[in-house]
Amino acid sequence: MDTLTMLRSYLTTALLATLALLATTTQGAELRTLAMAEPQPAISKIGTVSEVVVRKAERRLYLLSGERVVRDYRISLGKTPEGHKLYEGDSRTPEGDYTLDFRNPNSDFYKSIRVSYPSPRDRKLAEAWGLRPGGNIMIHGLPNDVGDMAFAYKGLDWTDGCIAVNNEEMDEIWQLVEVGTPIRILP
């Protein structure tokens, strides 16, 4: 067995073992689904992305086709990443079930796909506090004016509540995810 094959086998085994261990947590059913991940196929081999799953604590975004993970990405979140978004300006990323409902190729960030936040429940929650829920929560790339400073964003939570990836990853997501795709954002 050549070195590359051994390394690929080791990484696949390590990934599956880690996901299987995580599957014993309280959100085991969802993690077991993610644990079925195989090596990521070429974009041309991916069918329809049926769901997007974000796991905030892991800083990961998963693209699923049925129950199979076809892509996963390291993400950046809002500056206050823990907890559900409560009101406009809290810098939190919402949690719950939403839909990706609009694509903007000309946003202030490198492409963006809008999350259907706020839901009626989110509106009621914010109104109970006498606040506005906010909106314009997106999956997007880096700021358009980032230039040579793109490296500085890696690994940081820097958004106002959005889900950010690098521009190359945003190109993949843009190509694979259609308007109307459900998105589940988990703690």
UniProtKB/TrEMBL annotation:
Keywords: Cell shape, Cell wall biogenesis/degradation, Peptidoglycan synthesis, Signal, Transferase. Residues 1-28 form the signal peptide. The keyword S-adenosyl-L-methionine does not apply. The active site is at H140 (proton donor/acceptor), C162 (nucleophile). Gene3D superfamilies: L,D-transpeptidase catalytic domain-like. Coiled coil: none annotated. PROSITE patterns: LD_TPASE. It holds the Pfam family YkuD. Residues 50-186 form the L,D-TPase catalytic domain. The keyword Nucleotidyltransferase does not apply. GO terms for molecular function: carboxypeptidase activity; transferase activity. Pathway: Cell wall biogenesis; peptidoglycan biosynthesis. GO terms for biological process: cell wall organization; peptidoglycan biosynthetic process; regulation of cell shape. Belongs to the YkuD family. This is L,D-transpeptidase catalytic domain. It comes from Marinobacter segnicrescens.
